[in-house]
Amino acid sequence: MRKEFDFLGAVSVPADAYYGVFTVRAMKNFQLSGLRAKPVFIRALGIVKKSAAEANKELGALDAKKANAIISAADEVIAGKLDAHFPLDAYHAGAGTPFNMNANEVIANRAIEMLGGKLGDYSLINPNNDVNMAQSSNDVIPTTIRVACVLESKKLQEELKMLQAALNKKGASFAKIIKTGRTHMQDAVPITMQQEFDAWANAIEGDLPALHASIERLRILGIGGTAIGTGINTHPKFRKMVIERIAANSNEKFVACKDPIELTNNMNAFLEFSSSMRSVAVTLARIANDLKLLSSGPKTAIGELYLPEVEPGSSIMPGKINPSIPEAVEMAGYQVIANDTAVLLACKGGQLQLNTNTPLIAQNLLFSIELLSNTAKMFREMCIDGIRADEERCKELLYSGLILATALNPYFGYQKMSELVKEALARKMTIYEIILEKKLLTKKQLDELLLPENLVKPQEKKKL
């Protein structure tokens, strides 16, 4: 062990740890969830620290020798080489000060080591004075969340686009299958299976613009505002310069916000992003539920689709197969919705010049990105790509039911068709059979009116 000191007193730190006294205190204080910060968050934190050191070096505020060591140490943080030295619980003190100081200490001690010094000898490089120069937890952590979300959301957008494409492709393979459409969980009117799959694909496509727009808003940074956005303790050119360096080091576009004071206390950009992911979660969960219904039975319920058999469905019922992938998609969707609620409350919790709930925001946003990305990938690979249709079952349900009555409304009127439907139900007959029995149409006329291709798109009324 080694001894480190702060204004509260002495603390024992593991001799080989790159973190220091602040991190040790936080580890003891906050043992809440057993969860750690996501790796992309640590990477983004390294990017922010490296960029600040580069800006301070160029401005002449930070000695070049110190700056170069800090930059090299931050590069190792970015590369994930020092992840073991970020041990803090994801939920801890407000505004993420422990996260910020953990990074300051790790980078300082690794830089000290690079310069040939001993860990904990902060006379060489100081976590607060050097690594944290021109920064505050209050602008570093929100900036880190924004950078992390922008970096991680690329995978999410790609996975959603591939899932959309998979649904379109699968639907195209079912283009000739006419089946029963349902509303209120009851038989309604005919639909093609392609139309059904295309509607799901289009729902995902419809969620993407809002998701993209919310990510674009995250590219607006408040770094350089320090404690409350006024920029105290920074060089006048620091803010512009550090954002340019963040953009270069992340290979992403970032710009300065109009009002750093506003961005220090207003977290609604995170809420907008979270809400857009909630919409995606709702869409995926709804599609998953539809697939469960359409594959239900398969002998005693709808049974129009066969989902891939990924695992046995029961420990007691032989041969049973469950819709395991859609079930997992539903649960993941509900978790993202719950995460969004946490983000909403955290964003609402800002007071005066600061929102102290940023650790909660960070954990839930990054969890949702990861969960949705993995869910979209699993849904596509383990379910959508392998779906098979039972065309005979679709035909059986379509023609044995009563939904064809709607197609005949223009010829007999709603009231008359309602009476025929009621009689058909009572006598256990099909609409087709009762129309012919009552000689309301000839078989040729009825067959022409009920051609499958005429049932799923607008048609002019034909002369009988």
Give a concise summary.
This protein has 464 residues and is mainly alpha-helical. Helix content is 58%, strand content 7%. It is built from 17 helices and 8 strands.
Question: What descriptive keywords fit this protein?
Answer:
464 residues, Fumarase C, Chain B, domain 1, Fumarase C, Chain A, domain 2, Ribonucleotide Reductase Protein R1, domain 1, 17 helices, elongated
What would you say this structure looks like, in words?
With 464 residues, this protein is mainly α. It folds into three domains: 2-133, Fumarase C, Chain B, domain 1 (Orthogonal Bundle), CATH 1.10.275.10; 139-389, Fumarase C, Chain A, domain 2, CATH 1.20.200; 401-454, Orthogonal Bundle (Ribonucleotide Reductase Protein R1, domain 1). 58% of the residues lie in helices and 7% in strands. A two-stranded antiparallel sheet has the order 1-2. The protein has a two-stranded antiparallel sheet with strand order 3-4. A hairpin with a 2-residue loop joins strand 3 and strand 4 (186-192). Helix 2 (39-58) crosses helix 6, helix 7 (193-217) packs antiparallel against helix 10 (268-294) and helix 14 crosses helix 15 (414-427). The protein is elongated.
Radius of gyration: 30 Å
- Major sheet: size, sense and barrel closure? 2 strands, antiparallel
Number of strands: 8
- The name CATH uses for the topology of the largest domain is Fumarase C, Chain A, domain 2
Give me the CATH superfamily of the largest domain: Fumarase/aspartase (Central domain)
Widest sheet: strand ordering: 1-2
Mean pLDDT: 95
Q: Enumerate how many helices there are, as a single number.
A: 17
Question: In percent, how much strand structure appears in the residues?
Answer: 5-15%
Question: What is the 3D shape?
Answer: elongated
> How does the helix and strand content classify structurally?
mainly alpha
Order of helices and strands: EEHHHHHHEEHEHEHHEHHEHHHHH
Unreliable stretches covering 5 or more consecutive residues: none
* N-to-C CA distance: 96 Å
If classified by CATH, what would the architecture of the largest domain be? Answer: Up-down Bundle
Mind telling me the CATH class of the largest domain?
A: Mainly Alpha
Q: How many domains in all?
A: 3
Helix content: 55-70%
